[in-house]
Amino acid sequence: MNQEEKSLVQALHRGDKYACNDLVEKYSSKIYNVALRLTGHPIEAEEVLQETLINACKGAETFRGNASLGTWLYRIATNNGLMRLRRKKATVLSLDDDTKTGDGEFWPNQLHDWDWNPETVALDDELRQVMDDAVDRLPDSLRAAFVLRDLEGLSTKEAAAALNITPSNLKVRLHRARFLLREQLSLYFNDRGKNGGKTVE
Amino acid sequence: MSSHHHHPPHSPQCAKLLAQISEYIDGELEAEICAEIELHLGDCKDCQVLVDTTKKTIALYRRHHHTEPALSPEITARLWQALHDAGCTDTPE
Q1: pTM, whole model, 2 decimals?
Q2: Pair (A77, A120) in one structural domain
């Protein structure tokens, strides 16, 4: 933790209401985006955002300083998001059911090259929707690992701490999430290429 | 090249790469293992495609995630109100 974070945590521990304002200013966008990816729904994400910051402002004494403030907030947000999903979904449509070979390892179905650059390909509404749908269809535990590690850029150790799992478990989940998302995007780009190739700006 | 059906890894090297691809991409493997993987990538087109398209998937998702619009004023206003109602802040901003 840097000095700024330490001061903020001390102020939260004292019950300083301005500290809560600082927390909101600094982290609300990040928390909302994580919640949106986790739940796949703007209203759920907004509720997770509110719950998370209320939990954090009121429960600052549970923050022991073992992780960074951001990791602690991600942990609260992820727990809130996953709890909502568990309540909402009786069954989760899992993408990984038909992608295991006999020994339990995944093997790709889609192995055609993508002839474009991820920095320049047009991120239009259609592609964004395809990407969001693919994330939504991931099993919850894989989605959480992917969101924290690849989208929010937490380290393996930080993401594992936020999810309360071991780093090796985090790596396994991330590996599977990336695999499943790559398959979905591969399918999409293959079809899009056949339909006039509007893949590159 | 293109395949739409399940097929087993072509070789034990392919299976090994597949198991380690995430750590390879993240630079979390030892130099010796990376060298082994790179040697295999040199003569396996399918594994090259797998590594390349996995990297592209991650890069594209990052771009998508980081070009999300900022929180709307409506969401922000409701957040301050919720925090105020919960006794976390003195006044809604």
Answers
A1: 0.83
A2: no
